[in-house]
């Protein structure tokens, strides 16, 4: 019987990628939300692991893409979803991130979608179609502690739960718990994202608009899919 699985972070991807047809990467604050905003603008997003600026510049040049700036730069295209509302149709952007990008590139032969609260229903429908009766993995990315270890993040649990709820068929216990977490938080998603650790961190850095954009539920019909190294809308 077809099932949906849910495991955290890179280890979750590595555990599930050979057992499923589709992996949905969920990084609500902010990679997956940023990708959704960008592909809605008909842009293409090239994910790239965060941390090596020289390698990122070289890769951006190789694929003919602009390199996203640090969020700290302000006023430039970055991991901030608000900044990507300025993207031009057809533009290519290389988007380094410590979580969502890394997971996107680790999914092996499985088809990869970027899911968030904004596009949960659309991504779920596409995942079911692409899976063709095989299993689906929904992977909350989580955040990283200073030592590099995984910090489970509420916003990603809720985003994963929203996708799982929309998928609509049986899940492993981890997927069932994520779904119930989403259903519990659904009446107050904005307040939850604004007061969770990741949301507070962004608001303190003057990125409150990014949190508000990420908290919107099913306002997007985009389905960002990784094709030839870049996310594009395949809705």
Defining key terms:
10 helices, globular, 235 residues, 4-stranded parallel beta sheet, 3-stranded parallel beta sheet, 40% helix, putative 2-phosphosulfolactate phosphatase, single chain
Report on this model:
It is a single chain. Helices cover 40% and strands 19% of the residues. The chain is of the alpha/beta class and 235 residues long. The chain has a single domain (4-233), classed as putative 2-phosphosulfolactate phosphatase. It has a four-stranded parallel β-sheet with strand order 1-7-2-6, with helices on both faces. The longest helix has 14 residues, at 154-167. It is globular, with a radius of gyration of 16 Å. The two termini are 26 Å apart.
- How would a crystallographer describe the biggest sheet? 4 strands, parallel
Tell me the CATH topology: putative 2-phosphosulfolactate phosphatase
Lateral arrangement of strands in the main beta sheet: 1-7-2-6
Q: What is the CATH level 1 assignment? A: Alpha Beta
Number of strands: 11
Order of helix and strand elements from N to C terminus = EHEHEHEEHEHEEEHHHHHEE
CATH arch. level architecture: Alpha-Beta Complex
Provide the number of structural domains.
1
Question: Rg to the nearest angstrom?
Answer: 16 Å
- Uncertain stretches of 5 or more adjacent residues: none
Summed over residues and divided by their number, the pLDDT gives a mean of: 96
Query: Could you give the distance between the termini?
Result: 26 Å
Strand content: 15-25%
CATH homolog superfamily: ComB-like
Shape: globular
Structural class assignment = alpha/beta
Q: Classify the helix fraction into a percent range.
A: 40-55%
């Amino acid at each position: 019987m077809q099932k949906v699985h849910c495991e955290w972070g890179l280890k979750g991807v590595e555990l599930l990628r050979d057992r499923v047809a589709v992996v949905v990467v969920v990084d609500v604050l902010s990679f997956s939300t940023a990708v959704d905003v960008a592909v809605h603008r008909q842009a293409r997003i090239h994910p790239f692991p965060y941390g090596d600026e020289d390698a990122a510049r070289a890769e951006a040049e190789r694929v003919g893409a602009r390199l996203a700036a640090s969020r700290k730069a302000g006023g430039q295209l970055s991991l901030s979803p608000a900044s990507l509302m300025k993207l031009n149709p057809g533009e290519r952007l290389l988007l380094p991130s410590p979580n969502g990008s890394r997971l996107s590139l680790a999914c092996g032969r499985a088809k990869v979608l970027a899911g968030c609260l904004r596009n949960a229903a659309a991504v779920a429908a596409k995942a079911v179609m692409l899976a063709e009766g095989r299993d689906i993995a929904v992977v909350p990315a989580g955040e990283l502690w200073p030592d590099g270890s995984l910090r489970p993040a509420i916003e990603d649990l809720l985003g994963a739960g929203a996708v799982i709820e929309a998928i609509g068929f049986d899940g492993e216990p981890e997927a069932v718990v994520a779904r119930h977490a989403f259903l519990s938080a659904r009446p107050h998603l904005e307040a939850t994202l604004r007061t969770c650790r990741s949301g507070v961190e962004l608001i303190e850095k003057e990125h409150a608009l990014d949190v508000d954009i990420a908290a919107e539920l099913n306002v997007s019909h985009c389905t960002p899919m990784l094709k030839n190294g870049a996310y594009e809308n395949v809705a």
